[in-house]
Amino acid sequence: MKLKEKTIRLLKKIGLTDNEACFYYHAYKCKNQSVSDIQKKLKFSRATAYRIYDKLRDMKIVVPNHAGSAVQVASLNQIAQQLAKQGRKMDKLAFECRNVDSLLSFSTFAFNEEPFEIITDKNMIVEQNYKILHKKWDHLLAYGSSERLLDVVGDEHEKKFIKLRNRYGRSCSLYMTEFGDYAAYHMPNDVNELRDTKLEVDEKKQSYMMYIYGDEATIWHKDSNLGNRALVVSDPLLIQMYKSMFQASWA
User: Fold this and answer.
1) Which tens digits make up the pLDDT trace of 8-35?
2) CA distance 69 to 31
3) Which residues, including other chains, have CB under 8 Å from residue 171's CB and lie 6 or more apart?
4) What is the CATH number of the domain that holds 224?
5) How far apart are the first and last CA of the chain?
6) For 122-132, how does the pLDDT look when each residue is reduced to its tens digit (9 = 90+)?
7) Crossing angle of helices 155-167/146-153, nearest 10°?
């Protein structure tokens, strides 16, 4: 699921319509926009734009301002705090809001670009595993728990991925943070595949496996609340940070 789609879905869960959610998303991502600016960008009528603004202001999702000035919106984290006050029923939704807020606020992309895709469908997760092979890259950086990778992608598909990667002549540096069944079997038995491998157990980094390849990264993540997910990241700043952190850990 694209980041914009996920944000709008969350906003609809707390009572916003499609148009209201789009208004919020645009105001959040494009700072210094007036109601009139947003109206023109989204091709709303003037009456619709101001009706949406008034409703979001009443819901305390937008901050009241002077006519013609930039629309200021609350972050999803602030909205999550409001939801949390409503009781336990809203706890999971509040958690989702905080999760998406961290992605939105950390992104450097322009409006209508999508630097994140969150995939939860099992078949689409497997499909993403093979899509990586069709991207432009020569060397793969892998960091995290191989056990989580197998949980999310599946042992069969991981083995097929490795076979195809080797067939295409693409190399890999693997930094494992968990000594599980995968590491216990492969490290003493598969010298060729794991010749460029390091193992340093870190219990805080065992819920995911990250692949960094070219100008994109995929994070295979298993969470007790959110389930199995693949997070596809293409934001240039984040990719550079991931590569730098990998190199620093590898050194």
Assistant:
1) 887 887 788 999 888 988 888 877 888 8
2) 11
3) 138, 139, 140, 196
4) 3.30.870.10
5) 35
6) 999 999 999 99
7) 110
* Torsion angles phi and psi, residue 80, rounded to 5: -60, -40
For residue 213, what are the domain limits? 116-250
Q: Per the structure block, which two tokens stand in for 49?
A: 């734009």
What is the residue whose two structure tokens read 């939704």?
93
Looking at 7-11, 135-139, 202-206, which range is the least confident one? 7-11
Helix (H, G, I), strand (E, B) or coil at 46: helix
Same-domain pairing of 47 and 123 = no
Residue that has been written with the tokens 């993540």 in this structure: 221
**Number of domains composing the chain:** 2
pLDDT at 68: 60
Contact 84, 91 (CB under 8 A): yes
Nearest-angstrom CA–CA distance, 114 and 92: 24
| Contacts by 193-196, CB closer than 8 A, 24 or more apart | 193/162, 193/166, 196/171, 196/172
Question: Does the model's pTM come out above 0.85?
Answer: no
Residue 108 pLDDT: 47
Beta bridge partners of 2: 117
Rounded to whole angstroms, how far apart are CA atoms 212 and 198? 16
Q: Are 144 and 177 in contact (CB under 8 A)?
A: yes
Same domain, 100 and 182: no
Alpha helices in the chain (DSSP H): 3-13, 18-29, 35-42, 46-58, 76-84, 91-106, 122-131, 146-153, 155-167, 181-189, 236-250
pLDDT of residue 83: 65
Residue 91, CA distances (Å) to 67, 79, 184, 247 in order:
36, 12, 39, 37
